[in-house]
Amino acid sequence: MNFDLSNPTNGLSKLNTKIWDSHVHIWSADAFEPLLKVGREYGVHHFMGIAAPDVKKSLEEAGHEDLITFAYYLPIDAFASHEPERILNAIEEAHSEEYSMVKLWFGPRFLDFFEADKSFSLTLPIFDPVFASIEDYKIPMDIHVADPDIWYSTKYQDVGRYRTKEQALDEFRTILRKYNSLKIISVHFHSLPENLQQASQDLNDFPNLYIDTASTKWMIRELGRNTKQTRAFFDKHYKRILFATDLSVGWEDRDKEYLATRYWSQRIFWESNLQDVELPFPDEDNQNPPTYINGLNLPKEILEHFYWKNAEKFFNSNNYR
Ligand SMILES: [Zn+2]
Known about the structure:
CATH class: Alpha Beta
CATH topology: TIM Barrel
Number of helices: 15
Bound molecules: zinc ion
Order of helices and strands: EHEHEHHEHHEHHHEHHEHHEEHEEH
CATH superfamily: Metal-dependent hydrolases
CATH architecture: Alpha-Beta Barrel
Strand order of the largest sheet: 8-7-6-5-4-3-2-1-9
Distance between the termini: 42 Å
Structural class: alpha/beta
């Protein structure tokens, strides 16, 4: 089985549910059209889109408001430079502009992007008002806590600067405990597709915690290593897992193939029982390339929740906009 751009649903069966992609980045309104078009070919009917206020406005004016639930990207540079006031102002704006979610990104390299000269932890007291404000406004939070295991043994060896992965996750658990009415999606399978036992423990410990499947290659590489274990995880937690890609449009030039290969690969992975299907794009984090897709063959009931119902419930529940 191969990806085939001229036959985008090659190898896929008819799907009985719509798909809600719970994590995409929309950097310009124009760039949404191609994403929508390709998404539709794969059954995607709604997006949680991370977009700036002007982009959100343009998309709403273009009549797309029913297709997108919007998230506001909080200024991560202000976390790096310890300026909570700026983050609080952004939360005010997210609230007044009627955003449905705020997005926080703490891939350890954010410290380098913004040339941080102070040490960082999610639990620094100066950030307390930030989490308190998000909780007060009852805005759900989308958070990237940590990166693939492999990056900690390659890029992030300076533990003093980047913290260990376990440290970052522990800080996050402290936040979950302290702001226990916060409703949260921890992206990239809670940063733990490599350790499902721990991910399971955290889902058990924190009832407001949800996880997404963003980052196609990371998910397929790690969750495909032991399909039996991954299936068991889904059997147990499928109402807390949201389908997502992390596709990013309008930042750099992305063609149709970029969009289609991600949707195709994920659908083959979740739905089919095909094994050893070569991932149709490079995975530079695999030390033994290529990365293969080992289909999980998830049952219909699980797919219905994971693809649509969980997101619909998460974003449309009464307590939240
Ligand atoms: Zn993202």
